């Protein structure tokens, strides 16, 4: 062996999410990394020498569980204020749509974000990112969409990037200009769509602030033609697309995002069989968001059986946002996917690792395999299903991003 590994974990249960075993499990496993990449992943017995000679640091986990670092592939975690008042209103019978149509909902967070300085936005958002990290997240997607004008959208995206720099978590940014119609454009929808497509998106993309483009295709959001326009522009700029689709009604949005080879269609409670087929053909990931289902007290379940039958990869995310999903734990989202959607713990955990990586277009992480980035979560439990079973609690022992200690 030419180079010693940086770190070697021994006597671990490795849930690799690769291979044919349930959870890709390797018992009595060893995992090592060097230069930020996984260098060894297999049974302890296959190590090419004595642990102390192989690596700088050796940690005996005594049967403890190791998984890929968790990936939250759908959040709106940069925002100001909160909407606990709307929670109260919904409990008294008001619907999410009625609150939005009456001038609350997304645009009320827009008011708070527009008033916030970049520093304030960062200060309010950092604890949310820290909460996700404390529960095992190593990669997080963060959307804009509460600015709805150039400067405020830029501030949101800059704060998202800065969270990655300051906290050490890997951040992927998504521009969602078509999230809601800002009040100053209430009599001029086409003008706003033009502004998003012709000014905001190209400028922010040129500044390197945009990794992907999303939209809210819904009765209270934007229609298919408006969504298509922003997808066309994203396509021209070489940016991948994804979509908030079929959350409150069936707008056939999943088929639209599939038509553009989209990374993912997200929410999907009202997804039709033809939408499932379109996603399967395009390789578009289904991102299910049980936090929003729970908080809105939805009853219509996403079509799990059809997604399974057509082999659409299913990811799970927090959708962390102030309106529909103030959920600060991705592990909890996976647990909810089991309890509310009847997914198996294995499906739910694949949904926050390997399939979540795919939903972000990232092929360098999401599994434990040699050559992948050393994004690792080490847990205080032994059975992978426990990650879905325990509701809350400090289960994470440590995490690493590209081999660097994160939590
Ligand atoms: O994913 N549905 C659109 N966007 C968010 C909600 C945003 C909000 O209400 O602030 C969602 O549920
Ligand atoms: Fe969302």
Q: How does this model look, in words?
A:
By secondary structure, this protein is of the alpha/beta class. The protein folds into two domains: 5-68 and 367-405, Urease, subunit C, domain 1, CATH 2.30.40.10; 70-359, TIM Barrel, CATH 3.20.20.140. The protein contains 16 helices and 16 strands. Strands 1, 2, 3, 4, 5, 14, 15 and 16 form an eight-stranded mixed sheet that branches. A four-stranded parallel sheet has the order 6-7-8-9. The chain is globular, with a radius of gyration of 21 Å. The two termini are 30 Å apart. The mean pLDDT is 98. Fe (iii) ion binds at residues 74, 76, 244, 319, 321. N-(iminomethyl)-L-glutamic acid binds at residues 76, 105-106, 109, 216, 244, 247, 292, 319, 321-325.
Which helices and strands appear, and what pairs or packs with what?
Blueprint: E1 5-15, E2 25-34, E3 37-43, H1 51-54, E4 55-60, E5 65-68, E6 70-72, H2 84-91, H3 96-101, H4 106-115, H5 118-134, E7 137-143, H6 150-167, E8 170-178, H7 189-206, E9 212-215, H8 224-236, E10 242-245, H9 253-259, E11 264-267, H10 273-282, E12 285-288, H11 290-295, H12 304-309, E13 314-316, H13 330-341, H14 345-351, H15 354-359, E14 376-379, H16 386-389, E15 396-401, E16 404-405
Parallel strand pairs: 1-4, 1-5, 6-7, 7-8, 8-9, 10-11, 11-12, 12-13
Antiparallel strand pairs: 1-2, 2-3, 5-14, 14-15, 15-16
Helix pairs in contact: 5-6, 7-8, 9-10, 13-14
The structure holds N-(iminomethyl)-L-glutamic acid and fe (iii) ion.
């Amino acid at each position: 062996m030419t180079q010693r590994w940086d770190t070697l974990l021994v006597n671990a249960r490795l849930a690799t999410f690769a291979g044919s075993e349930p959870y890709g499990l390797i018992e009595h496993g060893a995992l090592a990394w060097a230069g930020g990449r996984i260098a060894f992943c297999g049974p302890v017995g296959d190590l090419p020498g004595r642990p102390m000679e192989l690596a700088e640091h050796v940690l005996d986990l005594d049967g403890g569980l190791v998984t890929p670092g968790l990936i939250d592939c759908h959040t709106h975690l940069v925002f100001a204020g909160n909407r606990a008042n709307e929670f109260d209103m919904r409990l008294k019978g008001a619907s999410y749509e009625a609150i939005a149509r009456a001038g609350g909902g997304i645009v009320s967070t827009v008011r708070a974000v527009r008033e916030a300085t970049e520093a304030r936005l960062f200060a309010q958002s950092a604890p949310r990112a820290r909460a996700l990290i404390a529960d095992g997240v190593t990669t997080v997607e963060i959307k804009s969409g509460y600015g709805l004008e150039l400067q405020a959208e830029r501030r949101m995206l800059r704060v998202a990037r800065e969270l990655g720099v300051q906290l050490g978590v890997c951040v992927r940014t998504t521009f969602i200009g078509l999230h809601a119609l800002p009040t100053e454009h209430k009599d001029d929808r086409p003008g706003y769509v033009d502004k998003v497509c012709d000014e905001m998106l190209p400028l922010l993309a040129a500044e390197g602030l945009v990794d992907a483009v999303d939209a809210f295709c819904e009765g209270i959001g934007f229609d298919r033609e408006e969504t298509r326009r922003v997808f066309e522009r994203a396509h021209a700029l070489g940016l991948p697309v994804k979509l908030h689709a079929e959350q409150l009604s069936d707008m056939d949005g999943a088929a639209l995002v599939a038509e553009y080879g989209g990374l993912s269609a997200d929410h999907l409670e009202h997804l039709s069989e033809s939408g499932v087929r379109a996603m399967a053909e395009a390789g578009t990931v289904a991102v299910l968001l049980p936090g929003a289902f729970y908080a809105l007290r939805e009853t219509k379940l996403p079509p799990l059986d059809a997604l399974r039958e057509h082999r659409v990869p299913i990811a799970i995310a927090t959708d962390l946002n102030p309106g529909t999903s103030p959920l600060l734990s991705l592990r909890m989202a996976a647990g909810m996917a089991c309890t509310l959607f009847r997914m198996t713990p294995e499906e739910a955990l694949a949904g926050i690792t390997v399939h979540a990586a795919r939903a972000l277009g990232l092929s360098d992480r999401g599994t434990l395999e040699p050559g992948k980035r050393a994004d690792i979560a080490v847990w205080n439990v032994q059975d992978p299903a426990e990650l879905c079973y325990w509701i809350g609690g400090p289960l994470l022992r440590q995490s690493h991003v590209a081999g660097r200690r994160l939590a």
